[in-house]
Amino acid sequence: MAKQNIFILGIESSCDDTSAAVIHNGKVLSNVVASQKIHEAYGGVVPELASRAHQQNIVPVVHQALKKANITKAQLSAIAFTRGPGLMGSLLVGTSFAKSLAYGLNIPLIDVNHMQAHILAHFIEETNFKKPPFPFLAMTISGGHTQIVNVEDYFSMMVIGETIDDAVGEAYDKSGKILGLGYPAGPEIDKRAQLGNPKAFTFTKPKVDGLNFSFSGLKTAILYFIQKETKANPNFINENINDICASIQYTIIGILIDKLKKATKATGIKHIAIGGGVSANSGIRKALQDGEQKFGWTTYIPKFEYTTDNAAMIAIVGYLKFLEANFAEQDIMASARLKI
Known about the structure:
Radius of gyration: 21 Å
CATH architecture of the largest domain: 2-Layer Sandwich
CATH class of the largest domain: Alpha Beta
Strand content: 15-25%
Number of helices: 9
Order of helices and strands: EEEHEHEHEEEHHHHEHEH
CATH superfamily of the largest domain: ATPase, nucleotide binding domain
Helix content: 40-55%
C-alpha cells in the first residue's frame, strides 16, 4: 500500500494552555502553545478566566500552527481535538472550534482522550527517542492527574492505579503555597531540592492499598510541620528552604517509585513510560533512570515539550485514529470527566 499523505491538526484546550499542532504522517511540523499567565496571581487556574482566554487565543494559535507547518487548511486530512477530561468551559472552546472547522472544510473530526494522549505522545516520530513496546506501564503525573496505566495497544488501556484525592502536581503546588513560593511551584521546588538535603526532614508516606495514590495527607503533614517549626523559629522557612524542598521531593518520589515497583511486580511488565507535566521533574526522571539499574526497568521519557499539555500529543492520537478510520460525529459533546 502506498504511504498516505496525512496532515492532522490537533487542538488542545483542556485546562489553561491553548495549543494547536500539525502532524504529517506521525512527524510534528508545528506545536504552538499559548500559556495563560493570568492564573499566577490567584495561585491556581480560575476556570472562567481560562475559558475566556481560550476564546481569545484559539484562532491566532491555529493560524500560527498552520503557518509554521507551511501548509494550508485545504491540505488538512482531519481535525483532532481534546474531548476530555478537563475544565468544561475550556473543553467547550476547543470542541466547538474543531467541530466548526471540520464541518467547514468537510473533513473528518476526531475526538481524543487527554489522558490517552499523554501516553501516546511516546509514539510521535522523533529522532533519538525510543518508543515503548506493548505491553508497557504508563505513569501519567500532572497537576490534575496521577495514574498508572497498563497499555496493551494504542487504544487498549486499563487504569490499574490512580489518586484517591489530590494529584501529585497539586501536592507540589500546595506545598509551594505553604512555603510562600510562586505558582506553579513544582519547578521551583525541584530547583531548590537539588541544593538541599533530601533526608533533612521526614514526612510520613500515606498508606494506601493496592496501586492507588493519596497526597492530601502529605500536604496536611507538611502544613502542620511548617506551622510548628515557624512558631518556634519565625525564620525557619528562609533558613531551611532548600532542605525542606529536598525532603518534600524525596517523599513524593518515594511514593511514586514504591507504587511503580508494586505495579511491575503485579503485572510482570518492566517497560515504563512517563508523561504529564510533572514528568519534567529532574528528581523523578533520575529516580526512574536509577530504576533501570536497580530493578531492571526500561524507561521511556518523551521530549520535554510533549510532557506538559500540548497539541502534538492530541494530533498523534488523531493520526493513529485516522489510520483506523475512527472518526467522531458532529453531535459529539465535551466530557469533563472522561475516563480512559
